[in-house]
Design a protein that fits this description.
Elements: E1 10-16, E2 23-28, E3 34-38, E4 43-47, E5 54-58, E6 65-70, E7 76-80, E8 85-89, E9 96-100, E10 108-113, E11 119-123, E12 127-131, E13 138-142, E14 149-154, E15 160-164, E16 169-173, E17 180-184, E18 195-197, E19 203-207, E20 212-217, E21 222-227, E22 235-240, E23 246-250, E24 255-260, E25 265-270, E26 278-284, E27 287-292, E28 297-303
Antiparallel strand pairs: 1-28, 2-3, 3-4, 4-5, 6-7, 7-8, 8-9, 10-11, 11-12, 12-13, 14-15, 15-16, 16-17, 18-19, 19-20, 20-21, 22-23, 23-24, 24-25, 26-27, 27-28
Length: about 300
């Protein structure tokens, strides 16, 4: 295994995946590898980090997988826009199980598990919904203001929240009733592309149209914003690591960007590949992963530095 960087050092590593796979989202696997959605080939991919070997599992004819996360069962769960279904892949047998949505055209985006093991998902056509892994029941609900539901996350208390790009809001889902509490982003029309919770239940949001990073505190119901560095930033993905450092992908800067909430400082880590276009970030302790949809690569940022 590659040694960790020395204290104070930060390194950015890239891993090639099969040409044409167009990796969209990425999720660290329970076996130490990494899952990724190969949207271009309709597969779920797996990367062995040590050997750099990749393996693909076909999700079926018409598949166009978008998001992938690892569930409480250790299996990868996929939001598949082409199949209009949530898909589970058994990590050992590679058996594929589909959970079809009741109506076509959801334009599925991203998923998360709540504190009781129910999967929640977003559909950009204007919906959000849930899957009960025990019964297989799929429920779908209309979202406020129609089209736009995009990123989704789970707060430390087990409550899911989602963001609406077209609607420019984030919403708290009551897992018992599916009722929503909606909060508009501070810049009108700023767009809420992705959302992620920190350890204090504060919601971090990328405002794609405004070029800003925003934070919402549910306790005080107050927002705060920061403009990303550069002339025309395009913040897409957001993720909060185990140190409560915030990570953003900036399409305009072609870089992974970190934000320290204590010092309010940004740091840019440029990609080696032009037009990397990282659309989702996930991680595990010591590792921050993204899928370079524009370069058929996965990217890993590893740091030996403390938050401060």
């Amino acid at each position: 295994m590659t040694p960790k960087p020395a204290p104070g050092a930060v390194e950015l590593l890239e891993f090639e995946v099969p040409a044409g796979s167009r990796p969209h989202d990425v999720a660290p696997a329970a076996d130490g590898g990494v899952w990724y959605t190969a949207q271009g080939s309709g597969d779920l991919g797996h990367l062995d980090v040590d050997t750099r070997h990749t393996q693909h599992v076909s999700l079926g004819e018409g598949s166009a997988p978008h998001g992938v996360i690892v569930g409480p069962d250790g299996a990868p769960w996929v939001t598949d826009g082409g199949l209009n279904a949530i898909v589970r892949v058994d990590p050992a047998t590679k058996q594929v199980r589909r959970y079809p949505l009741p109506e076509p055209g959801a334009n599925l985006n991203t998923a998360t598990f709540d504190g009781k093991g129910t999967l929640w998902f977003t559909g950009q056509s204007g919906l959000f919904g849930s899957v009960d892994p025990g019964t297989g029941q799929v429920r779908v609900h209309p979202a406020p203001r129609g089209r736009g539901p995009y990123g989704i996350t789970t707060a430390p208390d087990g409550t899911p929240w989602f963001s609406s790009l077209a609607g420019s809001y984030i919403a708290r889902i009551d897992p018992a009733t599916a009722q929503l509490e909606v909060f508009d982003v501070p810049t009108p029309g700023g767009g809420a592309r992705r959302v992620w919770s920190d350890s204090r239940s504060r919601m971090w949001v990328t405002e794609w149209f405004a070029g800003k990073l925003a934070r919402f505190d549910p306790g005080t119901r107050q927002w705060k914003e920061w403009a990303l560095p550069g002339d025309d930033p395009q913040p897409y993905a957001v993720y909060v690591d185990e140190r409560d450092l915030v990570w953003i992908s900036d399409f305009s800067a072609n870089a992974m960007v970190s934000f320290n909430p204590d010092t309010e400082e940004f740091r840019q880590f440029p990609h080696d590949s032009p037009g990397a276009n990282v659309r989702q970030i996930l991680g595990r302790p010591g590792e921050v992963w993204g899928a370079e949809s524009g370069a058929s690569r996965l990217v890993l940022v590893r740091s030996g530095a403390p938050k401060t």
